[in-house]
């Protein structure tokens, strides 16, 4: 399986390629900012902000079929909500950041985006 899948986007867009591309472009624009917010919340050890940032990222990675990244972000969200283990949050964040970077790079190549 690839690092991402547009199956859910295709279903949502009803095959409208322009609409699908706009969803992908918004993802590419917003996700780095959202991940930065999550990184800052983790650095501040602020569980409320960790939860909020992860909650915002979660549906976007799900929409792009990033199964492992979705699992990691879901775990971060749950740990944030329950004032969970910061070491686990840091570990999950590092893995999700790496997976997202790979997926975003592949999306840019596949869609010839800069």
Explain how this protein is built:
This protein is an all-alpha fold. The chain has one domain (7-110): Four Helix Bundle (Hemerythrin (Met), subunit A) (Up-down Bundle), CATH 1.20.120. The chain is 80% helix and 0% strand. It is built from five helices and no strands. It has helices at residues 7-13, 17-43, 47-63, 67-81, 86-110. Helix 1 (7-13) crosses helix 2 (17-43), helix 3 (47-63) packs antiparallel against helix 4 (67-81) and helix 4 packs antiparallel against helix 5 (86-110). It is elongated and about 40 Å long. The two termini are 24 Å apart. The modification Phosphohistidine is found at residue 55. Residues 16-114 form the HPt domain. InterPro entries: HPT_dom_sf, Sig_transdc_His_kin_Hpt_dom.
The major sheet is characterized as: none
Contiguous low-pLDDT stretches (5 residues minimum) are none
Mean pLDDT: 96
**Oligomeric state:** single chain
Percentage of β-strand residues: under 5%
Structural class: mainly alpha
Let me know the number of strands: 0
What is the distance, rounded to the nearest whole angstrom, between the alpha carbons of the first and last residues? Answer: 24 Å
Protein name: HPt domain-containing protein
Modified residues (Phosphohistidine): 55
GO molecular function, one term: protein kinase activity
Keywords: Phosphoprotein
